[in-house]
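hiii, so i know i said id send this last week but things got crazy w the move. better late than never?? heres the sequnce for the chain we talked about at the cafe, plus the structure i predicted for it. fair warning i was half asleep when i ran it
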Amino acid sequence: MVVNRLRAGVSSPYKQKEKEVLEMAVFKCEKCGATKEGRCKPKKCPSCGETGTMKKES
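okay and structure toks below
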């Protein structure tokens, strides 16, 4: 039984897909200079509310 093998420390016969580690990026507003950390580019600035001004910092 699979459950017993897992409890005994034996690996499962089914390979599990390894999760990719996504690094967080820092985005900065070109208008007000506010920064936000995240995986995806924000649509609008969390501080001034302007859309399309968030750019990834290098």
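btw Strands lie at 25-29, 35-38, 54-56. thought thatd interest u
miss u guys!!
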